[in-house]
Amino acid sequence: MIIILAIDALEYELVEKFNCQNLKQKFYGKTDISEFSQPRTIVLWSSFMTGKNKEKEILLKGKKEMWNTKFDIKDTFFSEFKNPAIFDLPGFNYNKEVHDKSRTLLKKFFEVKTEKEKEKIRKEYNKDAFDHHKKIKERFLKAIDKNHDLILGYFSVVDVIGHLNFGNNMLMRMLYKEMDDIAKKCAEKNCPLLILSDHGMKAIGKFGDHSDYGFWSLNLNKNLKTPKITDFYRIIKSLR
Question: 2-238 has which fold?
Answer without folding.
Answer: Alkaline Phosphatase, subunit A (3.40.720)
